[in-house]
Amino acid sequence: MWHKYPNPSSSHVTSVDVLDRTFDPKSGLVRTERIIGCKQNAPAWVIKLFGGSEQAFVREISFIDAANQTASITSMNLSLAQVATCYEQIQYSPASHDRTTFTQSAEIQARTSWRSVANGLENWLYARFQQNAQLGKAGFTDVLKRLWDERQLQLAGSSA
Amino acid sequence: MSQSLAPECTPLKHSYDACFNAWFEGYLEPAIAAGSNGGSGKNGSSAASPKAREEYSSKKAEEFEKNCGEVWRQYRSCVQGAVKEKGLDEMLKQAREDNPLKEPPLPSTSQSSSRS
């Protein structure tokens, strides 16, 4: 999962850093806090009104539970958080021995009391989420496929 | 491999990522092996007891410290410095206060949303 970036569907991601990572031997949980830099194509009027720049940052918290084979990823924008917030949650959990359940949700909220601006912002963010939700899953599926292929090659190599 | 937000931290980031990924793959190995056995009962240890699992995890934690502890601390302090320099530390502080997320969120918010 930490291999998610870079992938061909997320060329907007410019940097990925781990800020904090803890491993709890008791539960076997790995908690990771990352900061992800991306180029945002904010509409010109958003940048004009609220400042901010092309470069935006997102905070992401993930939990990997090896025993139960589940992963959860929560992310939220850091940049322009005083203007609008997007809080996204993703979960991967086993559905059966060869299937994985993927759930994704997001809460988007504009924090301005200026109604038409709030609506415009929410609409833009919602549209972006729709686009990127698809891309994110497609991108991660690409990454998993690459890891799977590498692994098969490794296995083939080591048994040859 | 992706970049760090600060170019000067990128080499440390790459070393740390490589070290962690190798460790993590090793850590997951028993789980994957147990899973791909498909419960054929080839080895009975696939359903490890909590105690055995904890022992294994502790051993793995020590191994991580030995292999990656030093590069992790170097990388972390480099990124922490850069985050401060870019003025991101205030935003992070606020986000951590709003959502500490110290525990994993409850599974699937879509069905069971009976909050009290």
Automatic annotation (TrEMBL), chain A:
It comes from the Eukaryota. GO terms for cellular component: mitochondrial intermembrane space. Residues 1-152 form the PRELI/MSF1 domain. InterPro entries: PRELI/MSF1_dom, Slowmo/Ups. This is MSF1-domain-containing protein. The lineage of its organism: Eukaryota, Fungi, Dikarya, Basidiomycota, Agaricomycotina.
UniProtKB/TrEMBL annotation, chain B:
Residues 34-60, 91-116 are annotated as: Disordered. Keywords: Disulfide bond. GO terms for molecular function: phosphatidic acid transfer activity. Residues 51-60, 91-101 have a biased composition (Basic and acidic residues). GO terms for biological process: phospholipid translocation. GO terms for cellular component: cytosol; mitochondrial intermembrane space; nucleus. Pfam families: UPF0203. Belongs to the TRIAP1/MDM35 family. This is Mitochondrial distribution/morphology family 35/apoptosis. It comes from Pterulicium gracile. The lineage of its organism: Eukaryota, Fungi, Dikarya, Basidiomycota, Agaricomycotina.
